[in-house]
Amino acid sequence: MDENKFREKLTEWDRKSLDDRVERWKQIVPAIYDVPLPELVWGYLSEVDEMYIAGHFIGVVLLCAGIAELVLADQIRVRTGMTAREVERFTLEQLAILGRRLSVVEEAEMGRLNELRKQRNYLVHGKAGRLAQMAKKRYRASGPDDSFLNAEFYVRSGFAGGIDQDACQHLRLIRDLTVRFYGAKP
User: Fold this and answer.
1) How confident is the model over 7-25, as a mean pLDDT?
2) Does residue 132 contact residue 149 with C-beta atoms inside 8 Å?
3) How many CA atoms lie within 13 A of 48 on its CB side?
4) What 8-state DSSP symbol labels residue 33?
5) Where does the pLDDT of residue 186 fall: very low under 50, low under 70, confident under 90, or very high at 90 and above?
6) pLDDT of amino acid 133
7) Residue 148, Cα to own-chain centre: how many angstroms?
8) What is the tens place of the pLDDT at every residue in 118-162?
9) Which of 21-30, 40-49, 134-143 is the least confident region?
10) What are the percentages of helix, strand and coil residues in the chain, rounded to 5?
11) How far apart are CA 152 and CA 119, in angstroms?
12) Which residues contact 122 (CB under 8 A, 6 or more apart)?
């Protein structure tokens, strides 16, 4: 393939994906923050929005887990008087449990954080079987036949109803948490 053919291919891809990107952009509600966010969080929030719009759903899941760790650690640090160094050694699971005990995290958020944590771990640790299970769970909930699904179909960004839906839910969770902890109403 020469450069011109590659340009044509990219132009066609852009034409096909433009409407999808605009629809994903519409799903992101601007947030206003009243107090400073923890270090890295603003940059990560901006990046995760761009990743979601562009359709990089695996990256959205991974970055949302990182944001969750940062904001939960900050809230726990403030409420317990622990140092940042003490809190940063906790895993996302430990932060969620401690956050629930300290009433930082609500019960419904606890389940959503656990789903985020599991999905992040399956992606990071290459657990194809676990991802395939998540795919089947996703498709059973939405109705399509899941008998043919495997992890590859689940993580493909163009396969509507798979990881794109999970990424959207994780993004909403992170935005809800950050606005509740640091901001005004979105």
Assistant:
1) 89
2) yes
3) 26
4) B
5) very low
6) 78
7) 26
8) 999 988 887 778 777 777 777 777 666 666 666 666 666 555 567
9) 134-143
10) 70, 0, 25
11) 14
12) 130, 131, 134
Q: Which two tokens stand for residue 11?
A: 């132009």
List of residues 6+ apart from 95 with CB closer than 8 A: 68, 69, 72, 73, 76, 87
- Do 163 and 53 contact (CB within 8 A), yes or no? no
3-state secondary structure (DSSP) of residue 89: coil
On the question of pLDDT at 170 being above 50, the answer is yes
67 with 176: CB under 8 angstroms? no
Q: Which amino acid is at 138?
A: R
**Any idea which residue has 């079987």 for tokens?**
129
> What is the four-CA torsion angle of 64, 78, 177, 41, rounded to 10 degrees?
-40
SS (H, E, C) 100-169: HHCCCCCHHHHHHHHHHHHHHHHHHCCCHHHHHHHHHHHHHHHCCCCCCCCHHHHHCCCCCCCHHHHHHH
Residues 6+ apart with CB under 8 A from 157: 55, 56, 57, 163, 164
Phi-psi region at 70: left, alpha or beta (left = phi > 0; alpha = psi -120 to 50): alpha
Q: Which residue has the higher pLDDT, 2 or 127?
A: 2
User: CA-CA distance, 174 to 63, in Å (whole number)?
Assistant: 10
